[in-house]
Write a sequence for this structure.
């Protein structure tokens, strides 16, 4: 029988190779193994990290196009209590879940739905002391979306979240920043 570490390694390898179905299956298997192992640990030992495997499995389902199966899991991630689970450093997974959900709404050109979900993501980011959006690829993606949907407030919010050290190293981000500033200043 494979160990948790072996399953985790195989899951990450499958994810990197974009074999999302296999990766999801392995992450969900790792979730169950971690739950079992964690149930035998003492109260002051390493926390149960099974939810992290669940989240990664959900991301793989989504990235593989299995949206209906992934959606309820992503919603669960957005509401997860990272602090009580002692997984506070992994709260960035909330942003990853919101980004996928927002992409889906944006793809349907549902401007009002996008704005509502954006407000929810922003509020949740504040609750978690992890401002939304912080992850650079999400910032890039949503600058495009904010401009396309004509949402200067969201565009300004993203501009305020850009980290100068990343801007300095990323020409695409420099270009998007310039475009976003031009858009916001024109309004």
């Amino acid at each position: 029988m494979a160990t948790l570490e072996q399953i985790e390694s195989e899951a990450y390898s499958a994810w990197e190779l974009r074999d999302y179905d296999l990766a999801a299956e392995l992450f969900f298997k790792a979730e169950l193994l971690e739950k079992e192992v964690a149930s035998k640990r003492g109260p002051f030992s390493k926390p149960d990290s099974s939810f992290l495997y669940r989240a990664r499995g959900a991301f793989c389902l989504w990235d593989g196009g299995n949206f209906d199966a992934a959606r309820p899991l992503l919603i669960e991630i957005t509401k997860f209590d990272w602090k009580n689970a002692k997984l506070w450093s992994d709260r960035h997974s909330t942003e990853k879940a919101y980004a996928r959900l927002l992409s889906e709404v944006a793809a349907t050109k549902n401007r009002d739905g996008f704005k509502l979900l954006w407000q929810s993501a922003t509020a949740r980011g504040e609750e978690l002391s992890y401002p939304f959006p912080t992850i650079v690829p999400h910032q890039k993606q949503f600058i495009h979306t904010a401009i396309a949907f004509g949402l200067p407030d969201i565009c300004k919010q993203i501009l305020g979240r850009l980290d100068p050290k990343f801007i300095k190293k990323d020409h695409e981000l420099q270009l998007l920043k310039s475009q976003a500033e031009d858009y916001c200043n024109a309004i």
The chain has a mean pLDDT of 96.
